[in-house]
Amino acid sequence: MKPAKEYILEQLTENTGTHFLDSGGENGRAWQRNKGKDLEAEPEYIIETGDNETIVMFSTFHYLNERLETDEFTEMVNGIIEENDLHWVQEVAKELQEMGYEVDEINTVNTYNHSAPVTQDFLYIPFEVDRETYILLQTHNGADIRGGWSQAKAYKLSEFAEGFGAVCVDVETKDGGYYESREGYFNEALEIESAIIL
Fold it and tell me: Tens digit of pLDDT for each residue in 115-161?
C-alpha cells in the first residue's frame, strides 16, 4: 500500500501549469518552488519577527504528513480517481455518492479562506465511512488561488488529526509566556521558544 507521505509529496510537487496572466512570473508558483526542495528536511515551522509583529507559518508537508494515512478504502478511491481521470474533490465526491457513500461536496474547506498559517494552501472535503473519518484533498500549487490545484487524493485522518483544518497556533516564548493565534500573526515581537499547530 502506498504511504500517505508519497501521495502528499506528489501533490505538493505536481506541475499544475503556468499562464501568462497569473502572478507567478517565471518561477513563482508553489510547484516550481517545491521541485528543488527536500520538503521532509524543512523545519516544521518558520518564524518571522519584525519590530512590532511575529508571524509563525507551518510547513504544509509536515502538517499533512503528521495527520494523514492511507488504507484499503483510500487505495480504492485513489484508484477510481486515476482510472476516471478525476481532478477536483467535488468530482470525486459525486463519484462516491453514486457508489452509495455519503459525501457532501458543499462541505469543501479551503485554508485560504481562513488565513491558515500554512506554507501552502489546500482544500478538502471531510466524510465518514464505517465510523472512520476520511478526506478528499487538493493542494494549491499555483500562484493565484483561483487556479493551480493538484489532482485530488483520498486520505484517512490519523488519530492525531482531531480538529483537522481548524488551524490554531500556540506558542511559548523564551520568558515563559503563552500566546495563541488563529492566523499565526502576533501583534508584537516575540522571542519564541516553541510553537505547535492544532
Answer: 888 899 999 999 999 999 999 999 999 888 888 899 999 999 987 67
Nearest to 114, CA basis, from 197, 26, 17: 197
Q: Could you identify the residue written with the cell 513563482?
A: 28
Task: Report the C-alpha gap between 181 and 23 in whole angstroms.
Answer: 29
51-84: pLDDT as tens digits:
889 999 889 999 999 999 999 999 999 999 999 9
One-letter amino acid for residue 94 of the chain: K
The overall longest dimension of the chain from CA atoms, in Å, is 56
Look at the block and give the residue holding cell 506558542.
Answer: 171
Q: Are 149 and 142 in contact (CB under 8 A)?
A: yes
Q: Do residues 109 and 121 touch, judged by C-beta distance below 8 A?
A: no
For 149-186, b where at least 16 C-beta lie within 10 A, e where not — what string?
Answer: bbbbbbbbbeeebeebbebebebebeeeeebebeebeb
* Residue 92 vs residues 36, 104, 156, 177: alpha-carbon distances, Å: 30, 11, 15, 45
Query: Could you please report the per-residue DSSP string of 55-79?
Result: EEEE-HHHHHHHHEE--HHHHHHHH
